[in-house]
């Protein structure tokens, strides 16, 4: 039995893990604030559409969709166009939380409710038949649920639904420092693997690097690889390694 | 699509981030006590008025407006004059908290109430049509709300209102040491970027430096740059770098 | 009196502990996320069946049985076949937790209930007469019980039941870092020994190693031995030692 | 506008901060147990009376006034005489707390009550027209209030009252180690600056030193200066610096 | 007055403390999991019977008596025989806790109840007239009581009862790392001394060592001595010392 | 005004602090378990009686009086004789706490009650007219009160009563490690000074040393001095210093 791989299309990444993620699994992308998690997640979705013809869903709990569209235009990604083509759905899980109206097509009710998010994903699936999804980020959901045990169960519901809907997904997770791999200590329990993004100082300069920390069923790289955010998005230097202290 | 930049006018700073902040976003200015957060925030507002003709709002939750006026006179900034010209509004969110009368024009009721602050900002907008705002500091609001999850939601309401009112804003945040980038671990979740001010010891002398830790949609400097507080306010040495341990 | 040993069959491991585990005892396998606990536990069960003709039970609280079957096929282990032969029972203690149907033969009800798990194990024993068991992992049970003192009592019930049913068992435990040997500080109180799996950085590469930290009644190796995950599963280098900092 | 300075009269100190404290502000004097906070505060008050003819109020929450009088006699300060001359008022905020009678003129009721302390200060002002005050220490008030958010508000009331009464004040704060600058993390939020007293080991000997950590509106020294407790009280060596690790 | 000493009979130990423990006192044996606490405690009891003709009581809260009998047979100790001779009583304080039947003669009811344990010890004293006792371990009692202050009082009751019954006793305590000397911070308050067992890494090998940390009324060794677990039990190398970092 | 000094009579100690403690004050003696606090406190009381003819009270909350008498006989101190001569009163604040009868003359009721302890001290004062007292230790009182703020108030009541009764006192405090100077962070707030006893490792041997950390109104030694526990009790080497890391 050979397991099916879903390539991220992020330059340099897939060759670190036997060609990509496992089909129908959920993975955690952890990193401190500003480490590149949102870019990584969106690039995975955009590549899915543009390179592999797989529609994608992006659930945004932190950045308002309009900001996402603006920020990602600098990488040459025209999200609005992809949305118009019914290849991309951005779920606005931010605006209504604060009692303000949202112009978005897909909005998530207030306060956070797993059931309604799941219903909405099912509806979207009917419309666009997505194969990939990203939830950015689990951390703000964690803040609203607070109890780690309950948070774990809710994430488990979401990840299982995604798997059942035939989605290969990324969950982002904002950690406070690089000493742990998840914020609330439970996010890695509902996912099949963990990718950690580092943004560390080397003398007076910040350096970005990345590690596949865990990936079930995969003989992945065990090294830490530098990456850059270029004007085309993330580029991983898979042949290079980071030797300095993380 | 080219994103509009709002220059801070702080010498040496804007060239670290493609010309300034993104229009209609909110940024976090974090630092330990005495690191220069209040000066940074006020200089951004004053420069907006004097250099770019953009009126500004300064919400003071810690220092009484009269003290602000006195302290900043040493930098040659005549806040009273700017207020008289209807270019600057200082919201006194300190005085009434302690049951004492305030002579200020704009006062915020007691205890802290997001709704009333938002109403007041809408009123002020009618009067002066501000383009910039500063909230100094989020930390005392955090103390009065206490629950981090609730604090995050209230900050989210304020920042979203500011963005909707067309304000490009700075939120200050007082951290206890430089190991984290926010006090309650949630402030960076409602902002589009984080600027960290350091005040660290190098042998027996304190040195000031600054880092753009995160700025969405921006190819900012990844270095740590020294700055000084001169008799004209903050001056960033954008060409120099700090090599020592932070 | 010579104590009976149960060999794990994991290459290189049994010679570290006088030939294997003690019959009818429960042992803890601790390690951080991705350290190889699930592989270790399943290899112990599979070897029991294939090398020693001892049927086994695998209680899965984290990975869905179907994923386990897929992931372990890469090591050439055909779990489905072993299940069909009535030599292996996989208890699905994951699916129903989230309100979704399970196709599995052995499912555990929701929410976690020690009594029902114990009943199910008794039923399975009637059917397959197992001699080995693995519970992967105790940690998700700990999350749902939360109170460490109560968690300890529930684990004690399970381990004692297993011993009474004539099962020699492994409990896995996911720790956050390698400074402790259990997650909730109580798991090692219900087991007769602790095996710790390390996944640590040596310069820019992760290295796997293993230590028998405690094994009652056994004169075990006191060293730390490197191991690898090969295409046949775990191989311990019992003659080699790890000198670097753990 | 030139801001008025209030000299402490402590040898070597005022030259570190443009001549002294700012008139009508409150400052924090932080330090570990035994670092010299009480001596610093009392010397500021005594100097005010003897060198600048400014009457002073000393609120003692920890040491009984009679002990203060005895301890400070070794520095040649005759507190009783200054009290008789109506230049000094010592508020006994310790005795009644424990249900014992106090012979003191100014006593604070039990348990700690901000309102009554404020009333008392207003009364004292009528009698002696003080210009300086010291509250030694905020920490025991913090213990009785416990909730940091509430403690902050109470301190804010006291400091604002003092400023309105025309008092330039010092608040002492006992920290546990020198890693933070306040005990409950809020004391520095109600004050205009922080002076930290260090009592650290250099080999087998304790050394005293001092730093002006923050002083709003002031271009203060950024160095750490050694000081001694002599038979005339504190003497700061403003020209010397401490290079060793704090 | 010369204080009466109770020799443990553990090779090399008694010479470290003027000949042994003080008669009718209780001592704490602390150590991490696997450090040898249970072996130390049982060897003290077995030696009491075989070398000094003093009957002993062993209260087992963690390991089932049957396991104890099996594990200790490897050291040549025939516990069953000693029990038959009415020289040893093993109190099973584990089995009933989890609702399973116990075949043991002396069982302790569920949940843990100090009063009933005390009653049982009084009964046993009638039957065997013990002079030594061991409670292995206090830590599981701590888990069931939880509140440290209450735990301290219960331990105090047990230790005082033991002293009044004329028993010289050892209490074991499982600590998480070697930075403290007790688990809940109170165990050392009910005992007259503390013996710490270390199980530390020296390069890639674990080394065992032991320190008499405190022994009231005794001029004990202040060094750390290595020990081994041989096929005859613990042997302390009283003339050797451990120099490396613990 | 020259402050009256109360010599401890402990060889080498008084010369470190201008001749002794200040009359009618309370001092804290802090140290880890086994550091020598109880011996220090009892030696101070015994010396008071034998060298300065000052009767003393010893409040024992941890060690039973009979044990104290036995342990201290090795230093040649005949406590029973001193009690018979009405020069020493030992208050048994341990026995009754656990529901067991006490033969002691002075017993403290259960549970700990400040009022009753104070009453008892007043009664004892009538009988023996003590000038010195020791409370060994504050820590077990802290455990029973638990709330640090309440604990502080109770200690304040006891210390103030002692001062009013004309007693110069020592309070002992058991700290967990040498990084703080008190256990609950409040004990030093009710005392006039702190003496810290260290019991630290230098290579493989424990070394005892002592520091006067704070002593109000005193120009004390600022060094760390080694001490020994000899067969006559504590002897401080006041001319020697400890250079190694504490
Ligand atoms: N055009 C760009 N060129 C280079 N770096 C960029 C660009 N746009 C954004 N970045 C970097 O990406 C960071 C934001 O990445 P993001 O994925 O939002 O982080 P996270 O989601 O982990 O907080 C910014 O702080 C900036 O450093
Ligand atoms: N005129 C000045 N010249 C130089 N430094 C000054 C001047 N005025 C204030 N400062 C410095 O600025 C600090 C206060 O900065 P501020 O912005 O209030 O800090 P924060 O808000 O981060 O606590 C003072 O502690 C002082 O070190
Ligand atoms: N075929 C393989 N070859 C090499 N390594 C593998 C293979 N399959 C899985 N792994 C490694 O095993 C890890 C998962 O091990 P697992 O036992 O699930 O960890 P744990 O249960 O401790 O979290 C993966 O992260 C990967 O590093
Ligand atoms: N006459 C003196 N000479 C030298 N040092 C003294 C003298 N009197 C007191 N001290 C020192 O001052 C310390 C007390 O200072 P204090 O201001 O009470 O400390 P704090 O209030 O910070 O706890 C004493 O511990 C002692 O070291
Ligand atoms: N026959 C033996 N030879 C050598 N070491 C042994 C033997 N039996 C047990 N041990 C060691 O003793 C340890 C268990 O000691 P134990 O007293 O139960 O520890 P603790 O009670 O401190 O957790 C085992 O982990 C093993 O390392
Ligand atoms: N006769 C003695 N000779 C030397 N040291 C002794 C003697 N008696 C007791 N000790 C030491 O004193 C320690 C107990 O001191 P103690 O004052 O009870 O400590 P604490 O009260 O700080 O816990 C013992 O652990 C032992 O090291
Ligand atoms: Mg993001
Ligand atoms: Mg400020
Ligand atoms: Mg696993
Ligand atoms: Mg003081
Ligand atoms: Mg044990
Ligand atoms: Mg003691």
Automatic annotation (TrEMBL), chains A, B, C, D, E, F:
Key words of the record: ATP-binding, Nucleotide-binding, Transferase
The UniProt record lists the keyword Transcription: no
EC id: 2.7.11.1
Enzymatic class: transferase
Domain KaiC: 4-246
InterPro entries: KaiC-like_dom, KaiC_dom, P-loop_NTPase
GO MF, one annotated term: ATP binding
Protein name in UniProt: Putative circadian clock protein, KaiC
Organism: Archaeoglobus veneficus (strain DSM 11195 / SNP6)
Taxonomy of the source species: Archaea, Methanobacteriati, Methanobacteriota, Archaeoglobi, Archaeoglobales
